[in-house]
UniProtKB/TrEMBL annotation:
Residues covered by the Tr-type G domain: 8-226
Protein name: Eukaryotic translation initiation factor 5B
Signal peptide: none
Record localization: Cytoplasm
Family, as annotated: Belongs to the TRAFAC class translation factor GTPase superfamily. Classic translation factor GTPase family. IF-2 subfamily.
Domain of life, source organism: Eukaryota
Part of the whole protein covered: 459 to 918 of 1061
Species whose genome carries this gene: Cymbomonas tetramitiformis
Length: 460
């Protein structure tokens, strides 16, 4: 494949953190300004992502450039904004994560919260570099705001008390990060980016610190991930979500990181019951935000070049598993080899199960979250064996399978740990009859807590 060191692709950025820390608001702030201010424009909302082109970044960081000049070498930033906690669990891609860099958002008034720590552990597990946004600085008592200012300009205008309160809260955050095995430092005081995480104070309400955040994301990616970011022709594409859309049928939302997709291409995907081979019928993206009289919700494309968030319309997508890779058949490719490739991805995850056949059942909404859950259950601090896994809602069949543990005289393992999936009514009924315990949660370690308490109960 041809590679050019000056032809970089867009880094993929994901935002994660505890609920209500301001993840959505931070993105809103970046977008809204640009809807009003058309000159700065070009920011587009894509399927599952927001594209911030280099021009918009240049504009947003203008004031910062005076003191911190820098060249933007990336074509822009592609920020993943799939709603809710789903997003990061989905963002799995073979070998490394789909995300090149993460933003871990922390509410400065609350410090590190349970989901912050869960996100931190996921980032560590996937070896994804990240920066910390210490958000809501405008809530420090008697904060004087300077809309969209670089954060050091803002700090320079604050009184002694604000500075003291900030320092206290920052020190506390540093301490909690250290307790979780991470060194952190204000990004402009960072003694060594290889051993200290950068912290950027921000406000999603006033926009302060956002220029700093955009600049640091560009710097870290273009300077430290140059090799990884060189554009290649070979298609690299990850499924974010599988969705029913009226008029279009079952569609998949994907992030195209490298290469070109065209209508009519043959693609291979991971399905619940094995590989899915299908043909792209349509490639669509949302209407640009400034389009006033919108005839249809989507714009159709004959072909699309990376990096983009795209909705794909094709037959037979119903069983596709979110969080997996999509492969494109090129003239040199043998279809069976592509199918093997897809099977390997599924096997990778399956191989994490306990070989003894004794353990709990685990169920999740996506392959990515299933993988994260298995990784967590296997870790030395947890060590819960797993005998059965499944993706999607908990059905009667899953309950049957879990009930087998009673025959093994292991009643505590007649348990289904269900992460972010519904339980059908019939399944719950059967579980009650067969004495199978179903535990559900939307945060991984809540499942662990429930299960540990339950084990203790049984053993007493
Ligand atoms: P998410 O759950 O992380 O996506 O959080 P949201 O973006 O929905 O924000 C949660 C709440 O915090 C909303 O009421 C926001 O208006 C508020 N919020 C978010 N960022 C800031 C901020 O920087 N300053 C202040 N004062 N409030 C904020
Ligand atoms: Mg949100």
């Amino acid at each position: 494949t041809r590679r050019d060191k000056d032809d970089l692709r867009c880094p993929v950025v994901c935002i994660l953190g505890h609920v209500d820390t301001g993840k959505t608001k931070l993105l809103d702030k970046i977008r809204r300004t640009n809807v009003q201010d058309r000159e700065a424009g070009g920011i587009t909302q894509q399927i599952g992502a927001t594209y911030i082109p280099a021009d918009a970044i240049r504009d947003r960081t203008k004031r910062l450039q005076d003191t911190e000049p820098f060249d933007i070498k990336v074509p822009g930033l592609l920020v993943i904004d799939t709603p809710g906690h789903e997003s990061f669990n989905n963002l799995r891609s073979r070998g490394s994560g789909l995300c090149d860099i993460g933003i871990l958002v922390v509410d400065i008034m609350h410090g590190l919260e349970p989901q912050t720590i869960e996100s931190l552990n996921l980032l560590k597990m996937r070896k994804t570099p990240f920066v910390v946004a210490l958000n809501k600085v405008d809530r420090l008592y008697s904060w004087k705001e300077d809309p969209e200012a670089p954060i050091r300009d803002s700090f320079a205008q604050q009184n002694k008390d604000v500075k003291r309160e900030f320092k206290e809260r920052m020190d506390k955050a540093n301490l909690t990060f250290a307790e979780n095995g991470m060194n952190t430092a204000l990004y402009y005081e960072n003694p060594d980016v290889r051993s200290y995480l950068n912290v950027v104070p921000t406000s999603a309400h006033t926009g302060e610190g956002i220029p700093d955040m955009l600049q640091i994301l560009c710097k870290l990616t273009q300077e430290r991930m140059h090799e990884k970011l060189m554009y290649v022709d070979e298609v690299q594409c990850t499924v974010l979500e599988v969705k029913m859309v009226e008029g279009l049928g079952t569609t998949i939302d994907v992030i195209l990181i490298n290469g070109v997709l065209r209508e009519g291409m043959t693609v291979v995907l991971t399905g619940l019951n094995g590989p899915v081979v299908t043909t792209i019928r349509a490639l669509v993206t949302p209407q640009p935000m400034r389009e006033l009289r919108v005839k249809s919700a989507y714009v159709h494309h004959k072909e699309i070049r990376a990096a983009q968030g795209i909705k794909i319309v094709a037959p037979n997508l119903e069983t596709v598993i979110a969080g997996t890779q999509m492969y494109v058949q090129t003239p040199e490719d043998d279809l069976d080899e592509l199918k093997d490739e897809v099977n390997t991805e599924m096997q990778d995850v399956l191989s994490r199960m306990d070989k003894s056949g004794e353990g709990v059942s685990v169920q999740a909404s996506t392959l990515g979250s299933l993988e994260a859950l298995l990784e967590f259950l296997k870790s030395p601090a947890v060590k819960i064996p797993v005998s059965h896994i499944s993706i999607g809602p908990v059905n009667k069949r899953d309950v049957m399978s879990a009930s087998v543990m009673h025959e093994h005289k292991l009643p505590e393992y007649a348990t289904i740990l269900a992460f972010d999936v519904p339980v059908t009514q019939e399944a719950q009924q059967m579980a009650d009859e067969l004495n199978v315990k179903i535990m559900t949660a939307e945060i991984i370690y809540h499942l662990f807590d429930q299960f540990t308490a339950y084990m203790q109960n049984i053993r007493e």
